[in-house]
Amino acid sequence: MLTDSHTHLNAEQFNEDQDEMIQRALDAGVTRMVNVGFNRETIPSSIALAEKYDFIYSTVGWHPVDAIDMMPGDLGWIEELCKHEKVVAIGEIGLDYYWDKSPRDVQQRVFREQIQLARKLGMPIVIHNRDAHQDILHILKEEKAEEVGGIMHCFSGSWETAKQCLDMNFHISFGGPVTFKNAKQPKEVLAQVPLDRLLIETDAPYLTPHPFRGKRNESAYVRLVAETAAEIRGLTVDEIAEITTNNTIRLLGLK
Ligand SMILES: [Zn+2]
Ligand SMILES: [Zn+2]
Protein backbone atom coordinates (compact mmCIF):
# COMPACT_ATOMS: atom_id res chain seq x y z
CA MET A 1 0.00 0.00 0.00
CA LEU A 2 2.23 2.79 -1.29
CA THR A 3 1.18 6.44 -1.44
CA ASP A 4 2.69 8.97 -3.79
CA SER A 5 2.26 12.17 -1.79
CA HIS A 6 3.20 14.50 -4.68
CA THR A 7 2.75 13.83 -8.38
CA HIS A 8 1.74 15.58 -11.61
CA LEU A 9 -0.29 12.94 -13.46
CA ASN A 10 -1.90 15.69 -15.56
CA ALA A 11 1.45 16.90 -16.96
CA GLU A 12 1.64 17.08 -20.76
CA GLN A 13 4.35 14.40 -20.66
CA PHE A 14 1.52 11.93 -19.92
CA ASN A 15 -0.86 13.11 -22.66
CA GLU A 16 -0.29 9.94 -24.70
CA ASP A 17 -0.50 7.30 -21.96
CA GLN A 18 -2.08 8.76 -18.82
CA ASP A 19 -4.44 5.82 -18.16
CA GLU A 20 -1.70 3.21 -18.73
CA MET A 21 0.70 5.13 -16.49
CA ILE A 22 -1.90 5.30 -13.69
CA GLN A 23 -2.52 1.55 -14.13
CA ARG A 24 1.24 0.86 -13.82
CA ALA A 25 1.20 2.73 -10.50
CA LEU A 26 -1.69 0.58 -9.25
CA ASP A 27 0.16 -2.56 -10.44
CA ALA A 28 3.22 -1.40 -8.46
CA GLY A 29 1.11 -1.27 -5.26
CA VAL A 30 0.38 2.46 -5.20
CA THR A 31 -3.04 2.81 -3.55
CA ARG A 32 -3.24 6.61 -3.29
CA MET A 33 -1.84 9.52 -5.28
CA VAL A 34 -1.92 13.20 -4.37
CA ASN A 35 -1.91 15.20 -7.59
CA VAL A 36 -0.68 18.77 -7.46
CA GLY A 37 -2.48 21.53 -9.36
CA PHE A 38 -0.32 24.63 -9.30
CA ASN A 39 -1.43 27.22 -11.90
CA ARG A 40 -4.34 28.27 -14.13
CA GLU A 41 -3.99 25.27 -16.46
CA THR A 42 -3.13 22.46 -14.02
CA ILE A 43 -5.63 23.26 -11.25
CA PRO A 44 -8.77 22.40 -13.27
CA SER A 45 -7.20 19.30 -14.85
CA SER A 46 -5.95 18.09 -11.46
CA ILE A 47 -9.44 18.37 -9.96
CA ALA A 48 -10.89 16.57 -12.99
CA LEU A 49 -8.49 13.67 -12.38
CA ALA A 50 -9.45 13.51 -8.70
CA GLU A 51 -13.12 13.37 -9.75
CA LYS A 52 -12.39 10.56 -12.23
CA TYR A 53 -10.45 8.25 -9.86
CA ASP A 54 -11.38 7.74 -6.21
CA PHE A 55 -7.73 6.95 -5.26
CA ILE A 56 -6.49 10.29 -6.65
CA TYR A 57 -6.68 13.47 -4.56
CA SER A 58 -5.80 17.02 -5.54
CA THR A 59 -4.08 20.03 -4.09
CA VAL A 60 -4.63 23.55 -5.41
CA GLY A 61 -2.21 26.43 -5.14
CA TRP A 62 -0.11 28.91 -7.07
CA HIS A 63 3.47 27.85 -7.83
CA PRO A 64 6.21 30.45 -7.16
CA VAL A 65 7.59 30.15 -10.72
CA ASP A 66 4.16 31.24 -12.01
CA ALA A 67 3.55 33.83 -9.25
CA ILE A 68 3.71 36.67 -11.79
CA ASP A 69 0.63 35.21 -13.57
CA MET A 70 -1.60 35.31 -10.49
CA MET A 71 -4.42 37.80 -11.03
CA PRO A 72 -6.79 39.53 -8.61
CA GLY A 73 -9.53 36.98 -8.05
CA ASP A 74 -7.30 33.93 -8.32
CA LEU A 75 -6.92 33.68 -4.55
CA GLY A 76 -10.71 33.66 -4.25
CA TRP A 77 -10.84 30.97 -6.95
CA ILE A 78 -8.44 28.80 -4.94
CA GLU A 79 -10.47 29.42 -1.79
CA GLU A 80 -13.64 28.31 -3.56
CA LEU A 81 -11.96 25.13 -4.88
CA CYS A 82 -10.73 24.24 -1.38
CA LYS A 83 -14.36 23.36 -0.56
CA HIS A 84 -14.20 20.47 -3.08
CA GLU A 85 -14.25 17.14 -1.21
CA LYS A 86 -11.19 15.80 -3.09
CA VAL A 87 -9.04 18.92 -2.50
CA VAL A 88 -6.80 18.10 0.46
CA ALA A 89 -4.18 20.88 0.71
CA ILE A 90 -3.05 24.26 -0.62
CA GLY A 91 0.08 23.88 -2.76
CA GLU A 92 2.47 23.72 -4.14
CA ILE A 93 3.40 27.15 -2.87
CA GLY A 94 6.74 28.57 -1.79
CA LEU A 95 9.81 30.17 -3.33
CA ASP A 96 11.94 29.23 -6.33
CA TYR A 97 15.13 31.25 -6.72
CA TYR A 98 16.49 29.02 -9.49
CA TRP A 99 14.11 30.03 -12.30
CA ASP A 100 13.76 33.80 -12.68
CA LYS A 101 10.33 34.05 -14.37
CA SER A 102 8.73 35.70 -11.31
CA PRO A 103 10.53 38.41 -9.28
CA ARG A 104 11.33 37.39 -5.70
CA ASP A 105 9.14 40.06 -4.11
CA VAL A 106 6.13 38.85 -6.14
CA GLN A 107 6.87 35.22 -5.16
CA GLN A 108 7.05 36.20 -1.50
CA ARG A 109 3.75 38.12 -1.62
CA VAL A 110 1.91 35.26 -3.35
CA PHE A 111 3.43 32.77 -0.88
CA ARG A 112 2.34 34.84 2.14
CA GLU A 113 -1.20 35.36 0.79
CA GLN A 114 -1.64 31.60 0.36
CA ILE A 115 -0.35 30.78 3.85
CA GLN A 116 -2.86 33.31 5.19
CA LEU A 117 -5.62 31.63 3.17
CA ALA A 118 -4.58 28.19 4.47
CA ARG A 119 -4.79 29.45 8.06
CA LYS A 120 -8.19 30.98 7.40
CA LEU A 121 -9.46 27.64 6.01
CA GLY A 122 -7.45 25.32 8.28
CA MET A 123 -5.85 23.54 5.29
CA PRO A 124 -2.32 22.04 5.33
CA ILE A 125 0.17 23.51 2.83
CA VAL A 126 2.60 21.87 0.39
CA ILE A 127 5.89 23.75 0.19
CA HIS A 128 8.10 24.04 -2.91
CA ASN A 129 11.56 25.30 -2.03
CA ARG A 130 14.35 25.74 -4.52
CA ASP A 131 17.50 27.54 -3.41
CA ALA A 132 15.49 29.58 -0.89
CA HIS A 133 15.85 27.78 2.48
CA GLN A 134 16.36 30.92 4.62
CA ASP A 135 13.51 32.96 3.14
CA ILE A 136 11.15 29.96 3.27
CA LEU A 137 11.82 29.44 6.99
CA HIS A 138 11.53 33.17 7.70
CA ILE A 139 8.15 33.51 5.94
CA LEU A 140 6.75 30.26 7.42
CA LYS A 141 7.61 31.60 10.89
CA GLU A 142 6.31 35.11 10.28
CA GLU A 143 3.05 33.87 8.79
CA LYS A 144 2.53 31.34 11.62
CA ALA A 145 2.40 28.37 9.25
CA GLU A 146 2.76 26.01 12.23
CA GLU A 147 -0.97 26.51 12.81
CA VAL A 148 -1.70 24.39 9.74
CA GLY A 149 1.56 22.53 9.03
CA GLY A 150 1.89 20.48 5.89
CA ILE A 151 4.56 18.99 3.66
CA MET A 152 8.09 20.08 2.73
CA HIS A 153 8.01 18.45 -0.70
CA CYS A 154 11.08 16.82 -2.20
CA PHE A 155 13.14 18.03 0.73
CA SER A 156 16.72 18.92 -0.15
CA GLY A 157 17.91 20.89 2.87
CA SER A 158 20.15 20.16 5.82
CA TRP A 159 19.12 18.42 9.05
CA GLU A 160 19.22 21.87 10.73
CA THR A 161 16.60 23.14 8.27
CA ALA A 162 14.57 19.94 8.61
CA LYS A 163 14.48 20.34 12.40
CA GLN A 164 13.04 23.85 12.08
CA CYS A 165 10.38 22.55 9.67
CA LEU A 166 9.52 19.70 12.05
CA ASP A 167 9.18 22.24 14.87
CA MET A 168 6.62 24.08 12.72
CA ASN A 169 4.48 20.93 12.33
CA PHE A 170 5.70 19.99 8.87
CA HIS A 171 6.17 16.53 7.42
CA ILE A 172 9.29 15.88 5.36
CA SER A 173 8.78 14.26 1.96
CA PHE A 174 11.54 12.61 -0.05
CA GLY A 175 11.58 12.00 -3.80
CA GLY A 176 13.83 10.58 -6.48
CA PRO A 177 16.98 12.58 -5.60
CA VAL A 178 17.37 10.67 -2.29
CA THR A 179 18.00 7.50 -4.34
CA PHE A 180 21.06 8.97 -6.08
CA LYS A 181 24.37 7.47 -4.96
CA ASN A 182 25.91 10.90 -4.18
CA ALA A 183 22.87 12.21 -2.25
CA LYS A 184 24.69 12.33 1.08
CA GLN A 185 22.68 15.13 2.72
CA PRO A 186 19.16 13.87 1.82
CA LYS A 187 20.12 10.38 3.03
CA GLU A 188 21.37 11.86 6.34
CA VAL A 189 18.11 13.75 6.84
CA LEU A 190 16.01 10.71 5.90
CA ALA A 191 17.91 8.71 8.53
CA GLN A 192 16.81 11.13 11.28
CA VAL A 193 13.27 12.27 10.44
CA PRO A 194 10.78 10.92 13.01
CA LEU A 195 8.92 8.06 11.32
CA ASP A 196 5.54 9.68 12.00
CA ARG A 197 6.61 12.71 9.90
CA LEU A 198 8.08 10.83 6.93
CA LEU A 199 6.46 10.94 3.47
CA ILE A 200 7.54 9.72 0.03
CA GLU A 201 6.73 11.07 -3.42
CA THR A 202 7.76 11.09 -7.07
CA ASP A 203 7.08 14.67 -8.31
CA ALA A 204 6.55 12.84 -11.61
CA PRO A 205 7.31 13.49 -14.46
CA TYR A 206 10.37 15.20 -12.92
CA LEU A 207 13.14 14.07 -10.51
CA THR A 208 13.26 10.43 -11.66
CA PRO A 209 14.84 8.03 -9.15
CA HIS A 210 17.84 5.79 -9.77
CA PRO A 211 18.18 3.69 -11.97
CA PHE A 212 15.89 5.62 -14.37
CA ARG A 213 17.50 9.02 -13.71
CA GLY A 214 17.20 11.26 -16.78
CA LYS A 215 14.10 9.47 -18.10
CA ARG A 216 10.46 10.45 -17.54
CA ASN A 217 9.33 9.81 -13.97
CA GLU A 218 5.97 8.23 -13.07
CA SER A 219 4.11 7.40 -9.86
CA ALA A 220 4.94 3.66 -10.03
CA TYR A 221 8.55 4.61 -9.25
CA VAL A 222 7.60 5.77 -5.74
CA ARG A 223 8.47 2.15 -4.89
CA LEU A 224 12.13 2.96 -5.65
CA VAL A 225 12.03 5.81 -3.12
CA ALA A 226 10.43 3.44 -0.59
CA GLU A 227 13.24 0.93 -1.19
CA THR A 228 15.88 3.58 -0.43
CA ALA A 229 14.00 4.70 2.70
CA ALA A 230 13.68 1.08 3.87
CA GLU A 231 17.41 0.52 3.41
CA ILE A 232 18.35 3.68 5.32
CA ARG A 233 15.88 3.06 8.19
CA GLY A 234 16.54 -0.68 8.47
CA LEU A 235 12.88 -1.49 7.77
CA THR A 236 11.12 -3.50 5.07
CA VAL A 237 9.61 -1.80 2.02
CA ASP A 238 6.17 -2.90 3.26
CA GLU A 239 6.78 -1.21 6.62
CA ILE A 240 7.88 2.04 4.94
CA ALA A 241 4.86 1.85 2.62
CA GLU A 242 2.48 1.42 5.54
CA ILE A 243 4.10 4.16 7.66
CA THR A 244 4.18 6.75 4.86
CA THR A 245 0.67 5.87 3.67
CA ASN A 246 -0.74 6.24 7.18
CA ASN A 247 1.09 9.56 7.61
CA THR A 248 -0.37 10.91 4.37
CA ILE A 249 -3.88 9.69 5.27
CA ARG A 250 -3.69 11.32 8.69
CA LEU A 251 -2.22 14.63 7.49
CA LEU A 252 -4.46 15.13 4.46
CA GLY A 253 -7.59 13.31 5.61
CA LEU A 254 -7.52 10.76 2.75
CA LYS A 255 -9.82 7.74 2.69
ZN1 LIG B 1 7.91 21.46 -6.48
ZN1 LIG C 1 5.62 19.31 -7.92
TrEMBL record:
Record's superkingdom? Bacteria
Task: Please provide the record's keywords in A-Z order.
Answer: Hydrolase, Metal-binding
- Cell cycle listed as a keyword: no
Protein name, entry field: Hydrolase TatD
One Pfam family name from the record? TatD_DNase
A single GO molecular-function term is: hydrolase activity
Q: Does the keyword Metal-binding apply?
A: yes
Which InterPro entries does the protein's record reference? DNase_TatD-rel_CS (IPR018228), Metal_Hydrolase (IPR032466), TatD-like (IPR001130), TatD/YcfH-like (IPR015991)
- Coiled-coil features, chain-numbered ranges: none
